[in-house]
Amino acid sequence: MDNLLEVKNMHVSFDTYGGEVQAVRGVNFSVKKGETLAIVGESGSGKSVTTKALMKLIPMPPGRIKEGEILFEGRDLAKLSEKEMQKIRGKDISMIFQDPMTSLNPTMKVGNQIMEGLIKHQKMNKAQAKKRVMELLELVGIPDAESRIKQYPHQFSGGMRQRVVVAIALACNPKLLIADEPTTALDVTIQAQIIELMKDIQKKTDSATIFITHDLGVVANVADRVAVMYAGKIVEIGTVDDIFYNPKHPYTWGLLGSMPSLDSEDAELYAIPGSPPDLLNPPKGDAFAPRNEFAMQIDKEQDPPLFKVSDTHYAATWLLHEHAPDIDPPEAIKKRVAGMATSSNSEKGDRL
Amino acid sequence: MSQEKLVEIKNLKQHFKTGRNSVVKAVDGLNFSIYKGETFGLVGESGCGKSTTGRSIIRLYNATDGEVLFNGENVHGKKNREQLKKFNREMQMIFQDPYASLNPRMKVVDIIAEGMDIHGLEGDVKARKAKVEELLETVGLNKEHANRYPHEFSGGQRQRIGIARALAVDPSFIIADEPISALDVSIQAQVVNLLKQLQEEKGLTYLFIAHDLSMVKYISDRIGVMYFGKMVELADADELYKNPMHPYTQSLLSAIPLPDPIYERSRERFTYDPNDHDTSEEPEFREVRPDHWVLCTTKEFENYQREYSTVTE
Hints:
The structure holds two protein chains of two kinds.
Chain A: E1 3-16, E2 19-32, E3 36-40, H1 47-54, E4 63-72, E5 75-76, H2 82-88, E6 93-96, H3 100-103, H4 110-121, H5 126-139, H6 145-148, H7 158-170, E7 176-180, H8 188-205, E8 208-213, H9 216-222, E9 225-230, E10 233-239, H10 240-245, H11 250-257, H12 297-301, E11 307-308, E12 314-315, H13 331-345
Parallel strand pairs in A: 3-8, 3-9, 6-7, 7-8
Antiparallel strand pairs in A: 1-2, 1-4, 4-5, 9-10, 10-12, 11-12
Chain B: E1 5-17, E2 23-35, E3 39-43, H1 50-57, E4 65-70, E5 73-74, H2 81-90, E6 91-94, H3 108-118, H4 125-138, H5 155-167, E7 173-177, H6 185-202, E8 205-209, H7 213-219, E9 222-227, E10 230-236, H8 237-242, H9 247-254, H10 261-266, E11 284-289, E12 292-296, H11 298-309
Helix pairs in contact in B: 3-4, 3-5, 4-5, 5-6
Family (chain B): Belongs to the ABC transporter superfamily.
Protein name (chain B): ABC transporter ATP-binding protein
Pfam family, one (chain B): oligo_HPY
């Protein structure tokens, strides 16, 4: 399979009064056709900036793509002008935003908002566009489309609004869909519906998805591959099984450990101490070192490269260096991974 | 854990008028008790009335009907200033959004000490400062932080300030309304660990309101599930997860994604249809197994009993 999108050594910075904030510091990844890549990380880790940069939606200035290439079907998006980008946005690449309350225009009827892209990109006339809108609303599961398209966003519930946002994103059959925390603002049951919807549509249209979230449960559900970001860098990337069953980076351990599992009776959650670094002055060496109980001297001096674990799995930690001491993940994490394996093998009815 | 009731909620109703003829019944006849020293988790979807319940208990809203007994005394009803003060000291709240719940124009020291000032707990300036510094250290901040303003802190740190403020007047009961929803995963674990540790040290009782079911399961001793202003199921945390009976609880549990890809591939979600119930009979809250209560009709009650009589602990 060919790569639909390839990001090479992308750096994104924001110039502020306080200095240059290096939000993304050299990110490499690729997305294949029909695949879902999940990007996880804390707020401020650069996951949203990364995807916004792909669509060139970051305000420039103060933001700028300092270096790197964004190859979409072989074309470098980083070099395109705003005019050319407008032809791609919403047509080849489209985006679902986190908050359906703010990403829809409150003064515009829902039908017109979905139609906008169709008329602009597909050169449809109004009647054709309307027909397509009805199809889309049916696809995303909004009943009674005929009367719904004449309503305004405030007449929709949160879940229904997010369906409208999904419909807008899908209107022109994009090749790549970027979903930036699409379910974070929603209830679990609604979240489950939206995720099922997105997976279903992806199967039908064979589009690729980049899914940003900090909920590891959602990641386990949707992703084929996972990239873990920390302080503007990808610290671990691999298939979903690599990341969940064989995590190598201490930060990934921390993320997995800080979520309670439903059958864990542990006295204390494995919390990552401290808070993420300030990217105005990124620390020397490994940015995670101050929060890492396994940090070695070299972590404070040099940033680790991505070490290869397997053909699909890479992690940026000096612990994988051949001279590094053999360190086992903390007990809590080992237990978690073991617990996962057993809970999956046990009967489904067990938890229900 | 003792079986002594600290808070008893009896037929609590909170209705809001939204127009001349329309009333929103946010909370509609709630009955439950919170024992001393336990953590009671309240879960449900947004709009089910769980936050309203918390706010009514602490008298941020005046209840439409019903009673909230705290140590045997009714919280609602007519009270003079002295009596109210007494309650406010015993009961404190931690709010969801640490960005909105701290006054941006006040220094941290004044935010934390405000309650102490009102209750006249620390007379002289020195003692007040010392107490604030001690509280800051309890919640894992530095005493140098006292003279800063809220905007200088991250979300997790702000939530710690909110916790310190709640602890300042030595309450026995804390209502935590989605205290971790606005925080990052790694920070969530820190705050939850802190809450647990404080509970052990100070013997606090918590009402923990949240929609993140895995976190609620982790922190709570007992859990109540709310749906449209009513409690539909109440049981020990483990029991609720092992043997959920009400179809709404089952659907809620089946919707949680777990960080486990193999499990996720086989997870089947189950939808709840409120029309499945027999509407000819008004459902009642019944005890199906010891300490496991479900809102059900007589027929459903019999079915549940039959179904779960064979299940052992």
